[in-house]
Task: inverse folding
């Protein structure tokens, strides 16, 4: 059952991501992206990452996706639900991306990962992440906070009418 | 589902699709979507390695920071896109080639 | 005493500051009386000092004030004031003459274009002269030495619109410089060996044998005695310049271009006496050889200048050469060791020569006004050939002239007789006292008294010639004569004062014996012991003895020769028994030589200045023709040629290579510019291809 659900999710992610990449309707692409995000959240659950799964949904679906929709709506004159989009250098891009994908797969798959066959047992990750965040990753955490503040100010400054 | 390779393949596919989106789309918002795909692919890798290889929470932490980064990036990028739109009336990156001159 | 001296030193500077910085504001408002007042205050202070000195009557009195000025660790220079009886007497002389000249100038210079500046310069001159008098070291004397040189230059060139005045100023300054170089060198030798400039310490250290110990070591094994002789003569060179001794006397007659009161103050009474004063100061450490040299220079100058004075027609020129001659007397006196006589003559000469100049100024003033009245600007007011018979028109001036001429000619009852007689006795004693060395072998020392008596005779002759030409006989220019008037009181009062001071008793009180110089002066001024220990020094005791013996014969001879000179003058110029013109023709070459000052100026111009300029010219041509043309320009031409070749190579080879590289890169750029689309996604593709290729290359 869990296997079945996993592969369903797997397929959902690939399909929705493909729609994002190849679709002609921008609105469709955005909603396909939401599918991808939700799928990835599912994958997190399979990977015992409960905190990340929730964060994925809250931040990506609740935050970034809404931002993207705003971006689309602010930059197009919306008369129908159809906003067409086009692509450039499709053939060249496809060839290059396929090459990259081949390289990644050929590099990663044959490798014998140490302990790859022994998955970690499920534990509660929130406590662990919280502890790490305020011990080993404290400096990173603080830098991240400064970065967020910078992004906040930068975005506000850039979005003003007159620069 | 208990094999690292299934996650890695998924991640690779997601990354490739994101990359394709970034390389081919003309619309700036669509390119941003591609970037999100790439970041998600990286997140999956981190968490997968965390579970199957390192057996600790370092990968999770990385993912948290990446999500945070993605949020910040989206905010700033959309601000830039809005400016581009105000300036040009469209957001087609292939036409934003003033640097060529 | 020190405070009084400081007041005397700096009050005239105050006068200078007032006159210069008032910017002529008080020119029409009697501003000159401020300076006159200051000078009279100075005179009173100096007289107070004189009174203190006389009541003390101590010949060895001295007082010194030190002030460190420059401290270089091992080497220190002190400035300070040294007061002894000589200083006090000199201060009185300077203050007196300066005050009288100030008073006199208020009338003489009235209406001058640079009236207040004139008084300012008189002030700075008096200040610097007092500085020389009060100096306690060679170094300080040198400082004020240059300052009097400067004020002399400024005052000679007072009427600088006249080329001759400007040139005379320059001549005085440059000629003095020649002497000063010697003086400075001598000072440095002394300071190097002894480490001090102070007069007392120099004498002390020489006496203690420091010189004998150090000189050889410092100057490459030279005989210390010879070095001391050289140092003494070098320092004396400063006196040669300033006191117009042969051969540097040429500036003084030219200096008569300055206003006549200036001639009286600077070029007769005080500044030119500074050289004699310097010799007085260095007297204790002069060696016998140095003194002999000094004596011969002085003696020669005395007779040499006297011979020139005979034939001059300009009233001031006669007095100028007379001054040179009298200065020669003083120097000769010091050289022969007649220290008191030399200094005595300095003082008496200051009085009567100051009076003579001021009286001649009075005559010139009258002549000038008369000519001005006639609107005649051609006739020379100083030429005696335009005067004659002035006796009746200017009785006071004439009286003063007679008294002072009697004084300078050495007639008994007047001061000049006493001092000149003392000098002549000194030379006599010197000649009689020389027993060994080069002087004795040929009886050379007897030349000095011969010079002395000869000069005395000639002096009497030309001075009476001056009197007869100016004041007796027919008026040569009746229309000028008609307008001649006696000068105003402010001019005649100084004359009378100085004439009174030319009487013998002013210097011999309380004794009134007209043929003996014993009195207050010889009480307070006494010859110092020689400090020289390194070799034969001047033997004072023997000399005093000989001096005593020579006194009477010298006096008789001097009266005789003076009488002879006067008699001859009377015959030629008063009774006209002998025609001066015929005499001049008969004497021929001698007359022309004297009239042309023995061609000394011509000698300097043709013998030194012209050859020097020619040498400069030749060197200049050498520089231009050879050095510039062949070496510098040749080098330039060669460089140009080489450069041309190198330039060609540069054009063809180096530039060719550079251009070739340029062309290649141009072509490359032209080819590659198609990649530059400006589209970010294209670039991204290239990045990806590059990354993939890197991976492929690394792995396979």
Result:
């Amino acid at each position: 059952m869990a296997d079945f659900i996993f592969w369903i999710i797997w397929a959902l992610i690939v399909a929705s991501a493909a729609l994002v990449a190849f679709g002609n309707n921008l609105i469709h692409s955005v909603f396909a992206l939401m599918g991808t995000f939700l799928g990835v959240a599912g994958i997190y659950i399979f990977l015992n990452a409960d905190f990340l799964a929730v964060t994925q949904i809250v931040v990506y679906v609740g935050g970034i996706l809404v931002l993207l929709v705003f971006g689309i709506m602010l930059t197009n004159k919306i008369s129908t639900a159809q906003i067409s989009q086009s692509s450039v250098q499709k053939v060249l891009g496809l060839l290059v991306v396929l090459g990259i994908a081949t390289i990644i797969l050929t590099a990663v798959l044959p490798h014998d990962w140490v302990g790859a066959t022994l998955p970690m047992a499920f534990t509660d990750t929130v406590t662990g992440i919280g502890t790490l965040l305020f011990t080993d990753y404290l400096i990173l955490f603080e830098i991240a906070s400064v970065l967020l503040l910078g992004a906040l100010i930068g975005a506000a400054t850039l979005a003003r009418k007159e620069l | 589902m208990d094999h690292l390779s299934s996650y890695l393949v998924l991640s690779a596919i997601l990354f490739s699709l994101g990359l394709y989106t970034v390389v081919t789309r003309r619309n700036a918002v669509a390119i941003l979507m591609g970037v999100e795909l790439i970041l998600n692919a990286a997140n999956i890798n981190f968490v997968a390695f965390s579970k199957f290889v390192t057996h600790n929470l370092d990968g999770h932490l990385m993912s948290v920071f990446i999500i945070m980064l993605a949020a910040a990036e989206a905010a700033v990028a959309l601000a830039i896109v809005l400016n581009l739109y105000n300036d040009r009336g469209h957001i087609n990156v292939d036409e934003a080639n003033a640097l060529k001159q | 005493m020190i405070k009084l001296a400081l007041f005397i030193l700096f009050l005239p500077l105050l006068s200078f500051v007032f006159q210069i910085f008032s910017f002529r504001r008080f020119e029409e408002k009697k501003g000159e009386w401020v300076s006159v007042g200051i000078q009279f205050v100075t005179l009173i202070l100096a007289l107070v000092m004189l009174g203190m000195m006389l009541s003390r009557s101590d010949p060895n009195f001295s007082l010194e004030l030190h002030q460190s000025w420059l401290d270089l660790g091992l080497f220190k220079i002190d400035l300070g004031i040294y007061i002894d009886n000589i200083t006090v007497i000199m201060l009185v002389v300077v203050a007196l003459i300066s005050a009288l000249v100030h008073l006199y100038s208020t009338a003489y210079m009235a209406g001058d274009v640079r009236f207040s500046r004139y008084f300012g310069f008189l002030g700075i001159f008096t200040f610097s002269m007092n500085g020389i008098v009060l100096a306690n070291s060679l170094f300080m004397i040198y400082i004020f030495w240059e300052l009097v040189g400067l004020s002399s230059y400024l005052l000679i060139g007072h009427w600088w619109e006249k080329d001759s005045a400007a040139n005379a100023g320059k001549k005085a300054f440059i000629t003095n410089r020649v002497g000063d170089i010697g003086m400075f060198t001598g000072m440095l030798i002394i300071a190097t060996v002894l480490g001090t400039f102070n007069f007392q310490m120099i004498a002390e250290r020489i006496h203690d044998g420091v010189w004998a110990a150090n000189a050889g070591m410092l100057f490459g094994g030279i005989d210390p005695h010879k070095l001391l002789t050289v140092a003494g003569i070098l320092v004396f060179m400063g006196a040669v310049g300033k006191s117009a001794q042969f051969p540097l006397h040429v500036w003084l007659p030219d200096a008569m271009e300055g206003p006549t009161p200036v001639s009286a103050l600077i070029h007769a009474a005080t500044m030119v006496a500074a050289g004699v004063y310097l010799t007085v100061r260095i007297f204790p450490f002069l060696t016998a050889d140095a003194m002999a040299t000094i004596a011969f220079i002085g003696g020669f100058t005395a007779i040499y200048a006297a011979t020139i004075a005979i034939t001059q027609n300009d009233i001031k020129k006669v007095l100028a050469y007379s001054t040179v001659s009298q200065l020669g007397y003083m120097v000769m006196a010091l050289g022969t060791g007649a220290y008191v006589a030399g200094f005595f003559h300095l003082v008496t000469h200051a009085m009567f020569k100051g009076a003579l100049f001021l009286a001649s100024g009075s005559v010139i003033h009258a002549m000038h006004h008369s000519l001005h009245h006639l609107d005649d600007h051609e006739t020379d007011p100083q030429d005696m050939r335009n005067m004659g018979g002035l006796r009746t028109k200017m009785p006071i001036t004439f009286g003063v002239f007679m008294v002072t001429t009697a004084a300078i000619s050495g007639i008994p009852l007047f001061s000049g007789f006493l001092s000149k007689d003392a000098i002549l006795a000194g030379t006599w004693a010197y000649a009689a006292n020389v027993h060994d060395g080069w002087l004795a072998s040929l009886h050379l020392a007897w030349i000095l008294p011969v010079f002395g008596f000869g000069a005395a005779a000639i002096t009497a002759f030309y001075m009476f010639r001056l009197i007869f030409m100016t004041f007796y006989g027919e008026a040569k220019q009746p229309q000028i004569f008609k307008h001649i008037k006696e000068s105003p009181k402010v001019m005649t009062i100084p004359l009378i004062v100085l004439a009174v001071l030319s009487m013998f008793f002013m210097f011999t009180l309380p004794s009134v014996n007209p043929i003996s110089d014993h009195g207050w002066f010889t009480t307070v001024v006494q010859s110092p012991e020689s400090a020289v220990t390194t070799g034969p020094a001047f033997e004072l005791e023997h000399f005093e003895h000989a001096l005593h013996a020579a006194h009477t014969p010298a006096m008789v001879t001097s009266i005789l020769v003076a009488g002879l000179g006067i008699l001859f003058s009377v015959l030629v110029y008063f009774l006209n028994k002998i025609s001066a013109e015929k005499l001049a023709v008969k004497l021929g070459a001698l007359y022309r030589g004297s009239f042309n000052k023995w061609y000394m100026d011509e000698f300097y111009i043709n013998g030194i200045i012209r050859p020097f300029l020619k040498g400069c010219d030749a060197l200049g041509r050498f520089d231009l023709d050879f050095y510039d043309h062949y070496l510098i320009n040749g080098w330039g031409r060669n460089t140009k040629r080489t450069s041309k070749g190198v330039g060609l190579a540069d054009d063809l080879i180096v530039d060719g290579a550079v251009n070739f590289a340029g062309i290649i890169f141009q072509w490359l750029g032209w080819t590659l510019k198609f990649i530059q689309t400006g589209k970010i996604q294209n670039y991204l593709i290239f990045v990806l291809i590059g990354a993939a290729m890197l991976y492929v290359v690394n792995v396979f």
